[in-house]
Amino acid sequence: MPAVFSYSEIDKLFKNRLLGREAINLSEVNIPKRLQPFYDIEAHSMLELEPPRHTQLRKMVLHAFTSRRIAALGPEIKNLCHRLIDNFPNDPFDILSTYATQVPVIVIARLLGVPESMTPQLLRWSNDMVMMYQARRTPELEGQAVTSAIEFSSFMATYIEERRNKPADDLISHLIAAEEDGARLSKDEVITTCILLLNAGHEATVHTLGNGIKALIEHGADPAWFTPDTIAGTVEEILRYDPPLHMFTRYIYDDVKIGGHELSRGDQVALMIGASGRDPNRWDDPNKFDPIRRVQKNHAFGAGIHFCLGAPLARMEMQIALKALFDRHPNLRITAAPNYANVYHFHGLEALWVQT
Questions:
Q1: Which end of the chain is flanked by fewer CB atoms within 10 Å, N or C?
Q2: Which residues contact 91 (CB under 8 A, 6 or more apart)?
Q3: Strand residue runs (E) in 142-253
Q4: pLDDT at residue number 183
Q5: Residue 25, pLDDT score
Q6: How confident is the model at residue 268 (pLDDT cuts 50, 70, 90)?
């Protein structure tokens, strides 16, 4: 498909209503029967919908996923990070599995109100399901994704019924209660939203933390990058320099000219956000990792109506997790050459072996 690489053009296209995430002729999308359970869940995902359904669904979810509720998690996230750091071994260890993976999945589990003991199972379901978005898809991996989608959906359905009968101060209860113009989320919409929040909120944050830790160590991990005044800028530079996804796609809803190219209704276009963060027309010395630079805006969380709902939570998690890590272990070092995993269009490491 055609691809767009410049920051300015991508920024315009994210906000252009002639492009969207939802396929124009769903009846023409040939979904094999064996994959139907996965796409039955996707059918209720904000990520794949356009207005008016997207607008109403997003508003209702925002009633539950408030900035106040997210901000209140700050002290809890800090305590979690320090607890995980307390358990670091003395020998070399993979910081992705012991830290970068654990922080976001435990936070999402707590936010949803799901028992923390469920996190290994949640991780398996999430890792299997996101394989459907990767270029390495095979029939075997698709089968794993479908099985996990069915299991995850069944678990959430049971848990949602429990919360209907016994509400608590958790995201599932608030999603059940959310209302917009007299409408409420259906059971299927609540299930899909919970799955989306886990899959999207976990996968991208793990990659960003791993990529960020790698970049920070390789560039000296200056203590000046982790002060209360600078940590937010450090995280934004990580998101610009090595974002967790390198591509978003959009469908063309009406014939349009982009960068001198004529695109027709029904075409798809790739927005290469990995490249937009390195655009020399936008950034001075774009290939230099510089946490002190003023990153005004990057596309790691998208833009427009599909701007990532969980961006405030992800930013807070990264700020707290990175500051705690490098405050406690300023001399953290990499002990084995890191390799990026073959999981395109995600962009993250297979492992990151370090020693304190």
A1: N
A2: 355
A3: 179-180, 183-184, 248-252
A4: 81
A5: 66
A6: very high
Residue 15: is its pLDDT beyond 90?
yes
Question: Which tokens hold the place of 43?
Answer: 């059918």
- Of 269, 285, 272, nearest in space to 237 by CA: 285
Tell the burial category of 289 from Cβ atoms under 10 Å away from its Cβ (0-12, 13-18, 19+).
Answer: middle
What radius of gyration do the chain's Cα atoms show? 20
Average pLDDT value for the chain: 92
In the chain, the amino acid numbered 71 is A
- As a three-state string, the secondary structure of 189-220 is HHHHHHHHHHHHHHHHHHHHHHHHHHHHHHCC
What are the structural domains of the chain?
A: 30-244+310-355 (1.10.630.10)
The mean per-residue pLDDT over the stretch 237-242 comes to 96
pTM to 2 decimal places: 0.92
Burial 100-113 (b: 16+ CB within 10 A, else e): bbbbbbbbbbbbbb
Query: By the 8 A CB rule, do 255 and 227 touch?
Result: no
pLDDT in tens, 184-208: 889 999 999 999 988 887 888 999 9
Look-up: residue for tokens 């793990």? 206
Q: Which tokens is 226 given?
A: 């982790």
Handedness of CA 99, 105, 108, 110 (dihedral sign): negative
Mean pLDDT of 223-238: 96
Q: Is residue 63 reached through a cis peptide bond, with omega within 30 degrees of 0 on the bond before it?
A: no
CA-to-CA distance for 205 and 197, rounded, in angstroms?
12
Helix (H, G, I), strand (E, B) or coil at 355: strand
Cβ–Cβ < 8 Å for 2, 269: yes
- The pLDDT-based confidence of 29 (bands split at 50, 70, 90) is low
- Both tokens assigned to 151: 């299991």
